[in-house]
Design brief:
Low-confidence stretches: none
Largest sheet: 8 strands, antiparallel
Structural class: alpha+beta
Helix content: 25-40%
Oligomer: single chain
CATH topology of the largest domain: Rossmann fold
CATH architecture of the largest domain: 3-Layer(aba) Sandwich
Strand content: 25-35%
Amino acid sequence: MDRQIRNFSIIAHIDHGKSTLADRMLEHTKTVEHRKMKEQILDSMDLERERGITIKMQPVRMSYLHQGKAFQLNLIDTPGHIDFSYEVSRALKAVEGVLLLVDSTQGIQAQTLTTLGMAKEQGLTIIPVLTKTDMGHSRPEEVGDSVMKLLGCSREDILLVSGKTGAGVPDLLEAICERIPPPRDTELDAYRGLIFDFQYSNHRGVIVYMRVFDGEVKKGDVLKFAASGKTFTALEVGMVTPAEVPVPSLRAGEIGYIVTGIKEPGVATVGDTLMLEKRMAEPLAGYQEARPVVWASVFPDSQDDFTILRQALDRLKLSDSSLSYEEESSGVLGRGFRCGFLGMLHLEIVTERLRREFDIEIIITSPSIAYEITYPDGKVESVYAATRFPEYGVSCTVREPWLLGQIISPPEYVGNIMNLLFDHEGGVLETEVLNDGRNLVTIEMPLRELMRNFFDKLKNATSGYASLSYEIAELRPANVVRLDVLVAEELITAFSRVVGDRRAEFDARATVDKLYDNLPRQQYVTKIQAKVRGKIIASRSLSALKKDVTGYLYGGDITRKMKLREKQKKGKKKALELGKGRVNIPQEVFMKMVKSD
């Protein structure tokens, strides 16, 4: 085993400077030429650069001379947002240590605690680093005290760096070589590699990124996926610098990529083990499959694009293993896909990538979550579409997922947070005062309430100072109801939703008002109603179209006009009798109602 290999990852709260620090490390090690250097060089997607966030993990190899020895530093840069914590968990299984970044101007944030917990579970070596120390309002002493209490370390263990100026980066590279342990020794002679990510190339097929735990792999080897059983010949073996550079072989402890040439979906999966076909061994412990927490339906704007949408989702799945989807159909919107996401930001990113990378116009329904329905006969069903939710009168028990979260906020905003939690059916489990005077509030809340713009409302209630991290806890009894919408006494299933019982009347009135504003008038008065638990709780009547049938008359007795108006009245009455429940709702009205606000 090469004792000069160091595998590590950078973990932190969102916007704490991970990508900027990685840029300075690449500069200092001369991994990237100065003329080719640019900001966020490891963020390859335009969407990442525009938003200033990391969406996908990115491996890169650096060479560094320490005490006369050449060290190979393998960095895996990770996202910071809670929705992409699955990316972080996969990266941590491929490394021996992490840099825990804490913004010295903001202090410890909620996501810092979450990622730190993941690193401790893996038994990784943790190097605490304070960033943005060059800024005038930096508080290294105060924030350092919080980090010391959190990790139980000494002040000398904490490194001070600036991703902007590069100050402290040489000391950080020295600490990586000295503190992070080399890859473990292996007694297994056969090759085993853990796949932590992959992507798709039109010309080269699936490219897998993996950490070699045992043995050696080189170009031309016949390899096999342990899970799918598919065999292939390695067309190319290489390292990422961050450009892909072919190498003769990858040895135990190294991180790199393999070009498979496979162009069919579903063969490669994250967490799978690659092995030599002629020397199979016990597969490595992989990853738990990502569990979607938010569901939304995606329909092509034109049904002619359905096949293109399917191909786009297949391709996107190759670069985003946490995305899941299944085909569904709607009598109104046609054929589409029910997609599962890890959170609201994940949903937003995926739909934006579909539009940009595949040039598809799509319709997104309002997001929902999965409910567990238990019937008296013991049958248990998972329901994530309102149309499949049991109607009023059906005997069953409903349970929904709850989340366990942590909010870190200045003390003056705790009252606002309490009011916000009450509005979202949440509760406070524990409150703790941190070293810097801020409050750490442990909360619980139904997952469905998180989707009612809880993130945005939290930022507004705390002037942007609060941070939130959460994990899905257990299922609990749900106090929810099905909200149905009737137009001219006909049930329109496309508008059905599952809402909290407390907000049922408010949501019903809002839905009726929105439909009232968008539905074209008919030849007769049209009732728009919202029904909950078998009762109409909101109703509005859309007035009929009015036409002056006597406009062309220029004289004569008044009875002529009266006869025409009576004839019109009878015609409308007949149309109402014949057309009850047959209101023609235009496609654009469905789009306005179904789309998320």
